[in-house]
């Protein structure tokens, strides 16, 4: 064992939990070592030259040197070879990452301010949680509802921007049962740092069991559906249910209470009509003490879903 292999093996990178993580790390280490060696050669050479060719006397003159073929060839050719290695090696691994097998587990991911909604083929929806089987290729079909976000799982060594109006894809195969962090890697507003989730990698048997449990949950009441929409539509990132102020007002005690607006007007009680309008035209009335930060849900919530949300709000006293 040489001292540098123990540095390369040291724990300065996150655990490798996907099939390609090791290959990505090899490229990373290669580029890192090339950079360190170049840095030492350049800085060392410069320091050496500063001392060796310093001006010693008043009339000290450096010999006139125009060029040196051997040196010029070497300092062009060696970096050229290194860059080509980085390029083609990177290309090869990138190509492997961009394979989207048809028989992979296909999952939809929607980024929005400030949560990830995960939707499975059987209709199961999760927020900020991605459950996947180990040792099976997984493909994420992703988009954004509002601004650019970026889906990033450091332990899988994958990161992909999600762009409104566009579909982007990400493929990976987890090799290790366990929980791994999901981050949003594109600054997307005030609660960007809270846009975090977890990937739960489970065994095949556990995955089958989980899928079965999800489909057996049966039909939900409007209040339960509303509570779910509160999560999946990311209302929870701006509205609390315990009275605390986040980006928007808490829903605690909202139903039926008098509302005051930034323009000095007010209404005696928050009724269905007001709450429905708050979702569809949020900028029509800005609640006193808040900014017009709420996106419109016009076209994003059906009338039935709006109803479910209102039924749920009524229960938050
Ligand atoms: Cu984001």
Describe this structure in words.
- The protein has 317 residues and is an alpha+beta fold.
- Helix content is 35%, strand content 20%.
- It contains seven helices and twelve strands.
- A hairpin with a 4-residue loop joins strand 2 (115-120) and strand 3 (125-127).
- Helix 2 (21-52) packs antiparallel against helix 3 and helix 5 packs across helix 7.
- The longest helix is centred in the N-terminal third of the chain and has 32 residues, at 21-52.
- It is elongated and about 90 Å long.
- 19% of the residues are buried.
- The model has no long low-confidence stretch (mean pLDDT 90).
- It binds copper (II) ion.
- Copper (II) ion binds at residues 111, 114, 149, 184, 186, 188, 192, 195.
């Amino acid at each position: 064992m040489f001292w540098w292999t123990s540095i390369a093996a040291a724990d300065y990178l996150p655990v490798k939990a996907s099939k390609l993580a090791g290959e990505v790390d090899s490229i990373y280490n290669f580029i890192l070592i090339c950079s360190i060696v170049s840095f030492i050669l350049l800085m060392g050479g410069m320091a050496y030259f500063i001392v060796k060719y310093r001006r010693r006397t008043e009339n000290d003159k450096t010999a006139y040197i125009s060029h040196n073929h051997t040196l010029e060839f070497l300092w062009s050719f060696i970096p050229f070879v290194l860059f080509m290695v980085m390029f083609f090696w990177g290309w090869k691994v990138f190509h492997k990452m961009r394979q989207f097998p048809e028989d992979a587990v296909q999952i939809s991911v929607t980024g929005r301010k400030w949560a990830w909604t995960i939707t499975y083929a059987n209709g199961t929806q999760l927020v900020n949680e991605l459950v996947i089987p180990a040792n099976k290729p997984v493909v994420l079909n992703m988009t954004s509802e509002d601004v650019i976000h970026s889906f990033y799982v450091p332990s899988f060594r994958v990161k992909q921007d999600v762009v409104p109006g566009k579909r982007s894809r990400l493929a990976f195969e987890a090799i290790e049962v366990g929980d791994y962090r999901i981050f949003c890697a594109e600054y997307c507003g005030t609660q960007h740092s809270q846009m975090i989730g977890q990937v739960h990698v489970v065994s095949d048997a556990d995955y089958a069991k989980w899928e079965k449990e999800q489909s057996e949950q049966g039909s939900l009441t409007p209040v339960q559906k509303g509570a779910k929409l509160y999560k999946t539509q990311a209302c929870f990132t701006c509205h609390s249910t315990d009275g605390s102020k986040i980006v928007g007002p808490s829903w605690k005690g909202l139903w039926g209470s008098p509302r005051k607006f930034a323009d000095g007007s007010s209404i005696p009680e928050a009724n269905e009509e007001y709450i429905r309008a708050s979702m569809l035209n949020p900028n029509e009335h800005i609640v006193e003490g808040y900014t017009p930060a709420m996106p419109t849900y016009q076209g994003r919530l059906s009338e039935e879903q709006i109803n479910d949300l209102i039924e749920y709000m009524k229960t938050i006293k």
